[in-house]
Amino acid sequence: MSNEGRKSIGFVSLGCPKALVDSERILTQLKLDGYDIVPRYEDAELVVVNTCGFIDSAKQESLDAIGEAISENGKVIVTGCMGKGDDAAAIRELHPKVLSVTGPAAYEEVVGAVHQYVPHTPVHDPYVDLVPPQGVKLTPRHYAYLKISEGCNHRCKFCIIPAMRGDLVSRPIGDVMEEAERLVKAGVRELLVISQDTSAYGVDMKYRTGFWNGRPLKTRMQELCEALGEFGVWVRLHYVYPYPHVDNIIPLMAEGKILPYLDIPFQHGSPDVLKRMKRPAAAEKVLDRIHHWRGICPGLTLRSTFIVGFPGETERDFDILLDFLREAQLDRVGCFQYSPVKGAAANDLPDPVPEAIKQERWERFMAVQQEISAAKLQAKVGKTIEILIDAVDEEGAIGRSTGDAPEIDGKVYLDGITDLNPGDFVEAQVTGADEYDLWAG
Ligand code: SF4
């Protein structure tokens, strides 16, 4: 997403920890949708007030906050505990200019109202966005993205994130853990850890020791994974680079503390191309590392993305990439044809690859990978797996295995099983597979 044309929203959050969870979920979604959250009324195009209706003084505080937002900004959406019943009527009477009033946990309505009054069409940019294009809708309540840092210290040539968002700034581990704890208490069953480089978490803070519930914890990926693993929910890691220290978290996966799943955007398999891209961990012996990880945790699912047709990519580079794919046996793979991004350093590189060759390489790449993915899913037939249910209708339930991240990976269909709810964990035997999805019962 580009910074141009971004819309700014103000947010006033009142009330108890439950209301705070609502606020965080709304804020996370607005940020994912490409809105900026700003701290001053005058910079915002609209203000959301999350109210508290617990006792009279809290109600008065909420009404005062709404009044202040109206006089300072004018465009106000009200949500939270005061947004139902008589209190809602009182708000409308006292502040008729309020654009919409909803009750607690009304995430969809609040985000919908923001989109209605401050329209903004996010453009998905696969190089920049941390969540998939489909993720623009509000995430269901049983899973949540947990953002652990902003920005990035790398300077990959095709990427403009560091120019847009600056160098890596990690969130203190205490804050991340508190947010995770609130989400789990609010019913979240899967935490999706995201950042531009999850393996770099804490580097900027020199792995400073923080505190969570009075307990010292280093701001570092391993300690974060160990602590998140204590919640007893699924913890899935996205955007990890194959540095040596990642080896330390594989045992946590083998022990079932966090999901045996790693999303590693390799982008290429040829060392020359990786060097030209200036990719992090380009010099690491990635295939050795993958074999080592699978030795420790045989059930590990590896997801990755690749770029074909990067400037200077030769037929030999591409062959090396295909060999890499065949040997790495990755489970889930996305592939983009290189295209210049405005402002990226790669735009100045010589030897662009003609469009027709990019297309042809992309097709060859997909053919090789589809065979691998299909065989890997076929091998699951007959096995009993754990499934997190995402949706249930009259035809049956749809869920995901530990190897499927929401939106980007496959699904597990439980045809004819209707007595389940989203957020339930079930065990079932895999009865069939195609190249993306599984069937179980
Ligand atoms: S690691 Fe590279 S691609 Fe990812 S955000 Fe940083 S500079 Fe961009």
Instruction: Characterize the largest beta sheet: strand count, sense, and whether it forms a barrel.
Output: 5 strands, parallel
Tell me the strand order in the biggest sheet: 2-1-3-4-5
Number of helices: 12
The average pLDDT score comes to 89
Bound compounds, each kind once, are: iron/sulfur cluster
User: Radius of gyration in whole Å, from Cα?
Assistant: 23 Å
Compute the number of strand runs. Answer: 20
How much of the sequence lies in strands comes to: 15-25%
N→C terminal distance: 40 Å
Task: Report the principal-axis shape.
Answer: globular
Low-confidence stretches: 133-138
Structural class: alpha/beta
Task: Give a concise summary.
With 441 residues, this protein is of the alpha/beta class. The protein has helices at 17-32, 56-72, 85-94, 107-117, 161-165, 173-185, 221-228, 250-254, 271-277, 286-296, 315-328, 355-378, and strands spanning 8-13, 36-37, 46-51, 76-80, 100-101, 143-147, 149-150, 169-170, 190-194, 209-212, 215-218, 234-237, 261-263, 301-308, 332-337, 384-393, 396-401, 412-415, 425-433, 438-440. The protein is 32% helix and 22% strand.
